[in-house]
Amino acid sequence: MRTSHPCCGCLSRRHCLKIISATAAGLAFSGELFSASAKSRRPDSGFVDPKRLRPCPKVRLEAAILQQPRPYWLGWPGKTYPLDQRQKEYRALLGGSCQRLGIELHEEGQPIETDAEFAAFLKGVGERKPDGVLVILQHMNCWGWANRLASEAGAPLIVFAPIGTSFTGHVAGISRQRGVHVVSSLEWQSVEEGLRMVRAKRMFEETRVLWIQGNNRNETVLDRLGTKVRAIPRNAFNELFDQMPANDEVKDVASAFRKHAKRVVEPTWQDSLNSARTYTTAKRLMTDEQANAISMDCLGMVSAKVLPTPPCGAWTLFQDMGVTCGCEADLFGALSLMLPSYLLDRCGYMNDPVPETVKNLLVAAHCVSGTRIAGFNQKQAPYILRSHSESALGVSVQVLWPVGEAVSLIRFQNPNELIFDTGTVAGNINTPPAGGCRTSVEIKMDNVEDCRDVLGFHQVVTLGNHRRMVEAFCQLYGIKVIHSPEHPTRPKTA
Amino acid sequence: MAKSHSHPEEKRSRASLAGSRSQGPAGARACFCALGLLVALQGSSEVLLKSPGLASSRMDGQGRLVEDWGALSVMVGSAGASVAPQVTVESIKLDGVVPAAQARSQQGGVALTLTAFRAPTWPAGIDVLTVRLAEAAGQEATVQLSLGLPETTRLGLKTVSLGGRPVVGLPAGVEVSQALREWGSVDDAVALPGWARPAAPCDPAFQNIRAGMGGVPILYRFKVEPKAKVNVVLGFCESYWAQAGQRSLVCQVEGAPPQEIDPVARWGQHQPGALLFAAGDANGDGMLEVAVLPKPDAADQNPILNAIWLFPAETPPNLEQVVAGKLNAAASRYVQVGGPNDQSLAAGGRVEYVLKLPARGAQELTFLVACPGGSVPQPDQTTWTPEKLRQSAAAVWHDWR
Domains, chain B, ranges and CATH? Predict the structure, then answer.
């Protein structure tokens, strides 16, 4: 069975547009931004639709139900298990999930119940090379096939084993195997999360990140993630910025950003216009370079005084629309921002980690944070418009993170390794009295005895404890997960 | 990365070679009698290997890949070969968009085709060299294939390195065939002389290490009598970590139970220590294998090793005296790992394979080659395959303006 394409050429494009539209609808300033720039005012001839910047890859899934010849008699799930009903339900759930996620589904029309049918399925998977394979187990004796798929399919494998189709012995090994995600549960939501992982990986592959720094122009591709990295000279940004007019779109963006702020402290109207010009500059540059994301040497540009404002405010706008724009040309920081965006449909922020040694908290500080921290289609967090702290220039944000809520800290060290930790928001620090960066969140770390031992720099803080999903994603794609040490590792010295 | 009967889509350009194919002055050739014949000895035009914005390398007129670390040549030899083959080098396009170089030659009844392109891997790229051998005379053939490399290169299990830099990634599934020394390191791990700072009197071997950067095992092999029993002592001195629980190691010595060791927990930072293994040639192949790997959950995944001693099986050596360097003379082998008396298992400068080609059959081997400023990835730590590399090159060239 194939799902129909709801639009010409790309099922997922429509879905992506839907996501962005939903984001816009729920997102006060972006919603106004969209409506103002795209509808109420006559669009500028150079208008770039930001909805097109988020990668919309084609994602192909092969799926099959695995069962044993009927009628069932003894052996799990048992004779009383309503096979037809369950299978109908699971097919419907699968279709719905794929529709929601923009995944092209190729589903075996009939359950597989013989070795010959399984061999044909395996052969087809090998030939069609899908982005992922999902099997739904309907008998305990089907695990042998699942194990063969895990080693022979050549594609990430999701195994859904509804309760009643496995013992611990079936699951213990395969569920820890690289390239496999096993859901032994009745919770379909976890199966959909597996599908999100497959989609997220395709989004990484579809992404071209503009690495704006230095003087070189080249393009490379990252191992494992498949993300394209296009390096362009730093001057490309400020030279384009100089040409960017303060047009209607710029004024609307500046106005909406100020209007929906809880407070505006330092930024002047001119600061806001400049900040909005960095937004239109970045859109134009990404479009010209066929890119979906940016990692820029922003501090270097401010230091060299080639820009009147750091891009912090614009980066916040992009984060809220699911478009990754990262600070300080930290390429793996930008990739770390992409993970919550692509996998969890929410933004976060990369931070400079500071130990608060009296309260034993980690202070995660930076001058950029998205406001759609609970999800792109959720209510935004309150924010205060500030200047960029270190330079006292332009527009930055202090996003007030919800105290008491769980957070995850994510950091790609390289394409093969990721640091992951969790904690709880303990407070928001104001500047002044503190120095540092505008968004400054106190975090009580889980499973890290001493805040000085938290690993990494520019870890991305994301709302929610996503340990299970991030670790499952990493297992599916062979990424090693590292956690900060629970106990201090450095000896006391004289 | 070894496979048979592949026919990549290629588009040829005559531009670089018009006029060079007919050249063939014998004086420009060099004889390569011992192994066969250098396939590419004459003056075809060179072809650049490039990717947008990256420093280029080249396939020269002799069919050699010329990189910033040296040149790689491919030679074939077979029984009865006596005439230097003529080689043609030309510029082609793979998949209609990826610039590549191709060298063709005929060695007796075997056609050799070298195809190379630049894959745009982050951060510096990799040159991908596919060696295709095709039997054309209708008779099964045994062919010796040799890679010629700088003499200072070292052959590991999966890579060839030069000064610690992995410069060639070897194809999986095909074993090298060259003669090996009586003992030595299988050179994937890096020698770091003077790395350690032992804080107690000890043998000078404790000053040096090999390190398996990125989780690469440190592997040594020693020739012994088949099924021989041996006492093996491994020496360690950790000088980076001050605290325990960082670099835990798994030591696997053939014929002995594996031992796990955290040198700092056992002896302390900068403190030399040793482990004894009642080992033996368990599989009877006449080689004793010694390996040190990272413990899978260790925070630091770079294993280290300072010293190896082999003693007769009869009397277990006193470890304190071994650490103090007082039993070196009694050892049948004493290796300052990463130090002055260390050596590679294979001689440098060459990688050899013996391949059987069925009549009218073909075989392909794909090598990853470090290009300017880069190195090849360790095969266990990468998802790159020749197919994916080519797809990436096509994707980048397709969108590049």
Answer: 2-180+348-399 (2.70.98), 183-336 (2.60.120)
Pairing state between β B209-211 and B304-305? antiparallel
Tokens 């096993």 identify what position? A182
Mutate to test the interface with B, among A221, A416, A493 (most CBs of B within 10 A): A221
Best to test chain B binding among A202, A204, A220 (most B CBs inside 10 Å): A220
Domain spans, chain A: 59-203, 207-482
Say whether residue A221 is in contact with chain B using an 8 A CB cutoff: yes
Q: Which residues of A27-65 are buried (b: 16+ CB within 10 A; e: fewer)?
A: bebbbbbbebbeeeeeeeeebbebbbbbbbbebbbbbbb
Residue type, A91: R
User: Closest to B122 (Cβ–Cβ): which among A208, A216, A220?
Assistant: A220
B276's tokens:
């004894």
Q: What does the angle CA B219 – CA A415 – CA A343 come to, to the nearest 5 degrees?
A: 140
pLDDT per position as a tens digit, B74-100: 999 854 454 567 899 999 999 999 999
CATH number of the domain at A59-203, please? 3.40.50.9100
Which residues of chain A have a pLDDT value below 50? 1-40, 494
For residue B344, what is the DSSP state? B
Question: How far is the CA of A292 from the CAs of A285, A287, A288, B54, in angstroms?
Answer: 10, 8, 11, 22
Angstrom distance (rounded) from CA A438 to CA A383? 10
Q: For this complex, say whether ipTM is above 0.95.
A: no
Please state at what angle helix A188-206 crosses helix A83-101, rounded to 10 degrees.
30
DSSP tally for chain A: helices H, then strands E: 14, 21
A123: left (phi over 0), alpha (psi -120 to 50) or beta: alpha
Q: How far apart are CA B52 and CA B54, in angstroms?
A: 6
Chunked mean pLDDT (size 10), chain B, 401 residues: 48 36 31 36 76 97 96 80 75 97 93 97 98 95 94 91 92 90 90 95 97 92 97 97 92 98 96 98 97 91 97 95 97 97 91 96 97 93 96 96 83
Which residues between 261 and 320 in chain A have a beta carbon less than 8 angstroms from any beta carbon of chain B?
290
Closest CB from B120, B243, B381 relative to A219: B120
Identify residue A47 by its one-letter amino acid code: F
pTM across the whole model: 0.88
- Classify residue B342 by burial, with Cβ atoms within 10 Å: 0-12, 13-18, 19+: buried
The CA–CA distances, whole Å, from A23 to A31, A317, B223, B282 equal 8, 12, 68, 65
Instruction: State the DSSP code for A114.
Output: S
Q: Within a 10 A sphere around the Cβ of A416, how many other Cβ atoms?
A: 20
Interchain CB distance below 8 Å, A217 and B246:
no
Angstrom distance (rounded) from CA A43 to CA A452: 51
CATH architecture of A207-482: Alpha-Beta Barrel (3.20)
Nearest CA of chain A to the CA of B243: how many Å? 6
Written as one string, the DSSP assignment of A139-201 is: SGGGHHHHHHHHHHS-S-EEEEE-TTS--HHHHHHHTTSTTEEEEESS-HHHHHHHHHHHHHH
Distances in Å between the Cα of A334 and the Cα atoms of A190, A297, A340, A413, B374 are 27, 12, 11, 11, 23
- Name A59's bridge partners: A103
Q: Nearest CA to A386 among A370, A397, A400?
A: A397
Q: How many CB atoms lie within 10 A of CB A23?
A: 24
Residue type, A180: V
Closest CA to A373 of A441, A287, A304: A441
Taking a C-beta distance cutoff of 8 angstroms, is the pair B64, B71 a contact? yes
Give the alpha-carbon dihedral of A135, A136, A142, A147, to 10 degrees.
30
For residue B7, the Cα-to-chain-centroid distance in whole angstroms is 27
**Phi/psi of residue A170, each to 5°?**
-70, -35
